[in-house]
Amino acid sequence: MSSENLPQSPEQPPRKPRVAVVFGGRSSEHGISVVTAGAVLRAIDRTKYDVLPIGITTDGRWALTADEPERMAIADRTMPNVSELADSMAGGVVLPLDPGNREVVYSEPGSVPKALGEVDVVFPMLHGPYGEDGTLQGLLELSGVPYVGSGVLASAVGQDKDYMKRVFSSFGLNVGPYLVIRPREWQQDEEGARRRIAEFAGEHGWPLFIKPARAGSSIGITKVDSFEGLDEAIAEAQHHDPKILIEALLRGREIECGVLEFEDGPRASVPAEIPPVQAHDYYDFDAKYIDSAPGIVPAPLTPEETAEIQRLAVEAFEAASCEGLVRADFFLTEDGRFVINEINTMPGFTPISMYPQMWEKSGVSYPELVDRLIQAALNRSTGLR
Questions:
Q1: Which residues contact residue 310 at a Cβ distance below 8 angstroms, ignoring those fewer than 6 apart?
Q2: Residues 257-276: pLDDT tens digits?
Q3: pTM
């Protein structure tokens, strides 16, 4: 009997790529990470992708959560929390540690582990330490699972403002005056550290900005106008990171620019300006996320200024060996120089966040932006590249 006459099995439709959206985490930016993930879950094209939401609790447990983005928004000025979204507080999600196996498992004490299926790509919507800083990226590299965004080195550099500024300086980018106080220095010679701060203030003047060196979303930052508020500001910064950064005030305009990796390399968006915020002394966490201070997109710059900041944003992206996406933050000083403040390798990503707004004005819609990042990650291998 000819094989042509044998009954044929119906062709199975190809499996859609499975995207694990990982959010929450152990950092002080837990809540905004949940908000960001909710926006991404709403935007992912469900006709193209299967989605697996995984939340990381504040104590580091990986929890299976319901796919309910409407529960992941700010309500009554209160941030959402993974523990409120978890299907169970007893079980946990486990990623494979075998690069040849991408099957995710869910287990609860006293129960047989349940296979959740393979994951093709991870979209890590984590901000701050234990997620945005290269730690999660290292885990995914060991697991052989592709992921959205920068790799281990760029993520670590993008999180640590001290080494970020060192990298930028080495590539010839302008950075503002700053001072780093490391944990050991503060513990062993607090008076010496205070003298260094006093000398810095004497050279650059007040006010100073006291920051955690490895935090984002403007959390833990205090603007101090004299020695009177210094101790409280240092304590606040050290609550988030024992390593702190002291920065001098740069007088000028705050300008941001998005970078997105295309097939032919990174490109810059139209820039945005963060104007002075009424009722806020500076662009702090509440101004960004609670009171939703509006940015100006595109920024009112000359064509020459726009071209220059776009060039510098891409240069910063390349200097730190970034991949996928970056938001680069600059000051346009009163003497006409662009001074880079920092980059964000996983910037705020809600539809009202500056990064998506800049790309919207550049012709890339929010759903298209999410899709482009997922596709880029699917096409990029893990390991050395």
A1: 257, 268, 269, 271
A2: 999 999 999 999 999 999 98
A3: 0.89
